[in-house]
TrEMBL record:
Subcellular location: Membrane
Organism listed in the record: Tetraselmis sp. GSL018
Family designation: Belongs to the ammonia transporter channel (TC 1.A.11.2) family.
Protein name: Ammonium transporter
Membrane topology: Multi-pass membrane protein
GO annotation (BP), single: ammonium homeostasis
Keyword Transmembrane helix among record annotations: yes
Upper lineage: Eukaryota, Viridiplantae, Chlorophyta, core chlorophytes, Chlorodendrophyceae
Keyword Metal-binding included in the entry's annotation: no
Ammonium transporter AmtB-like domain segment(s): 74-284
Keywords in alphabetical order: Ammonia transport, Membrane, Transmembrane, Transmembrane helix, Transport
Transmembrane segments: 74-97, 109-128, 161-182, 189-211, 231-252
Length: 284
């Protein structure tokens, strides 16, 4: 029989691009199958129907895999770029302090990344993103240590490892902002405790408020605050404002550096040892 004998009926089709399927004789059916969302067909020949349906399903599957791969790669590249800020903060802070304190400030930046990764994995990510538990507008209550991993597929139910890496890079950046605020006057133990507290609780709570759909000021909530909620796609408030407030209170609590003011209370110059590092860190 000829393809002209068959009359396809499309319920809903979102498509672009043509796919040609041979079905016998000298004619063929031309099916638009790119980005298919849903399709049903009524054909006189059931074999042709099954052929077309399998072909369209295969095309849709390939497109889904391609889209997931592209999204994952985009998240990974974005995470690497965000984490590059660690190098920028390290250079900026190291160049701003006296040479004798360079190693101290660099080790603190390394400490932020290492300790922050453990704390954010065990507690912070669960506090930041709700997971499948009961919705809480203040803080997340599930998905600690990414425990909502699906054993059968190896996929994280709520997000994925690429998304976690992206969020961890932001958490580490928020913690590192404080490093320069308390430079040259904070012990390693005190800074370690601060870094653990900020990456496991303080920063994740702010993330939950704004970026999680259950957050009380999130623009993605069912009923956003004041009808719009808070939109912060790049993290200027969630990341940098949180780190800035933490740095402000840290500097207030530890006070000025020794020798920063003379006996009369007048400030004295304490220039950094490397303008080159400051400039390079600023660009990064």
């Amino acid at each position: 029989s000829n393809c002209s004998d068959y009359v396809p009926v499309w319920d809903s089709l979102d498509c672009s691009g043509d796919e040609v399927i041979e079905c016998g004789g000298e004619e063929s059916i031309t099916i638009k199958s790119t980005n298919v969302t849903f399709i049903t067909m009524e054909l006189m020949d059931r074999n042709v129907t099954e052929l077309v349906a399998k072909h369209l399903a295969s095309q849709a599957c390939r497109q889904q895999v391609l889209g997931d791969t592209a999204n994952t790669n985009f998240l990974l590249v974005s995470a690497y770029l965000v984490f590059l800020m660690q190098a920028g903060f390290a250079m900026l802070c190291a160049g701003s302090v006296r040479s004798k304190n360079t190693m101290n400030i660099l080790l603190k930046n390394v400490l932020d990344a290492c300790v922050g990764s453990i704390c954010f994995y065990l507690l912070g990510y669960g506090f930041a993103y709700q997971g499948s538990g009961a919705a809480n507008p203040f803080i997340g209550t599930s998905n600690f240590a990414l425990n909502q991993l699906t054993p059968s597929t190896g996929e994280v139910a709520i997000t994925d490892w690429a998304g976690f890496l992206f969020q961890w890079a932001f958490a580490a950046a928020a913690a590192t902002i404080v490093s320069g605020s308390v430079a040259e006057r904070t012990s390693f133990i005190a800074y370690l405790l601060y870094s653990m507290f900020l990456t496991s609780f303080v920063y994740p709570v702010v993330v939950h408020w704004v970026w999680d759909s259950a957050g009380w000021i999130s623009a993605f909530a069912g009923e956003p605050l004041f009808g719009s909620g808070m939109i912060d796609f790049a993290g200027s408030g969630v990341v940098h404002m949180t780190g800035g407030f933490a740095g402000f209170w840290g500097a207030y609590m530890v006070g000025p550096r020794v020798g920063r003011f003379d006996s009369d209370g007048k400030p004295t110059d304490m220039p950094g040892h490397s303008a080159t590092l400051v400039v390079l860190g600023t660009f990064l």
